[in-house]
Amino acid sequence: MPRVVVDVMLKPEILDPQGQAVANALPRLGVGDVASVRIGRRIEIEFTGEPDLDRAREIADKLLANPVIEDFTVRLVEADETADARS
Amino acid sequence: MTARVGVVTFPGSLDDGDAARAVRIAGAEPVRLWHGDPDLHGVDAVVLPGGFSYGDYLRCGAIARFAPVMETIVDAAQGGLPVLGICNGFQILCEAHLLPGALTRNQHLHFRNRDQVLRIESAGTAWTNAFQPGQEVLIPVKNGEGCYVADTATLDQLEAEGRVVARYVGGNPNGSQRDIAAIANAAGNVVGIMPHPEHAVEALTGPSLDGLGFFTSVLKHLVGAPA
């Protein structure tokens, strides 16, 4: 069954201290060419019937994301795609 | 007649017992409300206590907002019911859109737990009318996600309308914009505060008795005494 994937990211103007902490740790791995890291959340939704993107958008807007501080995108992922596939 | 102040317990609430105790010490009757019960049992005001409702899953307060009791509280608050959200309760009020803005991870990423001086900026709300404007109070702060953020227009509006209720003094514990520790809705009946007034109501356990003023304020408000 295809799934709907919702990606939630902090808005660009909102400080992401988690991402900054990760970025600050990278030099300890010997990585020196990363300018910034921002951390978001990926949510996979399986509907009982056909995937409903409009419904997923409503879910994202009301619950999964807080529009005051976060943006989200909604997209369909086919069943045979691996969980980490990116569109 | 003794005022009846409801204290909601969500799964993961932590400070509901202390909040109920503060209500009692202030001279009101605490009424325990359950997240799954939409009935407010005729209370005159509601406290949303601190803690980690629903494990802080997704975002702090995001799931609690949809609890059956919250649907009733949102309607009642829009009708003027005094509601105080403390810490996680503040986060729930923002998620429920009863208050603008959002609470995000402390800028320094550390959980901050200390006694904190606040300046009461607005004594015109249902929960702060026992204070003098500009009065400084000492109450504990303890949060990991207490950094208040909102867009500039919202912040300017809050300031212009006197809805910044309290600010941190002597160091901002979480990076909140404009040192905001507490805000109110336009009508002044809904207040969200990040520090914990319910932990500063007894000499034995608190750094001061300053927190009591928030609870005596609502009693004054309910009997219609001038602020």
From TrEMBL, chain A:
Its EC number is 6.3.5.3. InterPro entries: PurS, PurS-like_sf. Keywords: ATP-binding, Cytoplasm, Ligase, Nucleotide-binding, Purine biosynthesis. GO terms for molecular function: ATP binding; phosphoribosylformylglycinamidine synthase activity. Its main location: cytoplasm. Pfam families: PurS. It is found in: Cytoplasm. It is an enzyme of class 6 (ligase). One of its GO terms (biological process) is 'de novo' IMP biosynthetic process. Signal peptide: none annotated. It catalyses: N(2)-formyl-N(1)-(5-phospho-beta-D-ribosyl)glycinamide + L-glutamine + ATP + H2O = 2-formamido-N(1)-(5-O-phospho-beta-D-ribosyl)acetamidine + L-glutamate + ADP + phosphate + H(+). One of its GO terms (cellular component) is cytoplasm. Pathway: Purine metabolism; IMP biosynthesis via de novo pathway; 5-amino-1-(5-phospho-D-ribosyl)imidazole from N(2)-formyl-N(1)-(5-phospho-D-ribosyl)glycinamide: step 1/2. Belongs to the PurS family. NCBIfam families: phosphoribosylformylglycinamidine synthase subunit PurS (TIGR00302), PRK05974.1 (NF004630). Part of the phosphoribosylformylglycinamidine synthase complex involved in the purines biosynthetic pathway. Catalyzes the ATP-dependent conversion of formylglycinamide ribonucleotide (FGAR) and glutamine to yield formylglycinamidine ribonucleotide (FGAM) and glutamate. The FGAM synthase complex is composed of three subunits. PurQ produces an ammonia molecule by converting glutamine to glutamate. PurL transfers the ammonia molecule to FGAR to form FGAM in an ATP-dependent manner. HAMAP family: PurS. Part of the FGAM synthase complex composed of 1 PurL, 1 PurQ and 2 PurS subunits. This is Phosphoribosylformylglycinamidine synthase subunit PurS. It comes from Micromonospora arborensis. The gene is purS.
